[in-house]
Amino acid sequence: xxxxxxxxxxxxxxxxxxxxxxxxxxxxxxxxxxxxxxxxxxxxxxxxxxxxxxxxxxxxxxxxxxxxxxxxxxxxxxxxxxxxxxxxxxxxxxxxxxxxxxxxxxxxxxxxxxxxxxxxxxxxxxxxxxxxxxxxxxxxxxxxxxxxxxxxxxxxxxxxxxxxxxxxxxxxxxxxxxxxxxxxxxxxxxxxxxxxxxxxxxxxxxxxxxxxxxxxxxxxxxxxxxxxxxxxxxx
Length: 235
What we know:
Layout: E1 9-13, H1 29-42, H2 45-48, E2 51-54, H3 58-69, E3 76-78, H4 87-101, H5 108-112, H6 118-133, H7 145-153, H8 156-164, E4 169-173, H9 175-186, H10 190-197, E5 205-211, E6 214-222
Parallel strand pairs: 1-4, 2-3, 2-4
Antiparallel strand pairs: 1-5, 5-6
Helix pairs in contact: 1-3, 4-6, 6-10, 9-10
């Protein structure tokens, strides 16, 4: 199938969540501001006729709420297929298996205050993700990379069908899901996927077009709607 001219798959990362708090899975005050900005970017006739998809996590639903409040279509599909893998579980597994994998463990103070030391922790997280993807790191809570990848790509046939009917699809989800979907559909390798996963901004927009059964990246990790540097965050 080929998407009609102008129809796009639009992947939106949720606004900033509450890293370092007792409940990460809720937008911070800044995250709500980011959600309003991305709603402003996507407002218009194309959004009014779009099909919306979202995961079931609170940070997804709160971000989506800003889009719907701006007058978007109420045609919404909610699917747990679009939920993030357990980042906390993967971090714990990485710490537990670090010696076997030949990786250093981040300093205790970095782990205790991830919001302050996020850049350094993301550098460490890339190799942890690589070990998970190639099967060297296994954890029952996280499950396998293959299972996660299959799960997040399940809705892609429905997305292609909507594009073929001339309706854009707007998906609100998480960084790992977006990076996996973009890489798989556009034919990028896992190294590219990991690089995107750890640098995907909150409330960023990535767009793909479908033509002649081929997905192409139109924009990736775009934040032009977050024109204040203070609105660009990674977690």
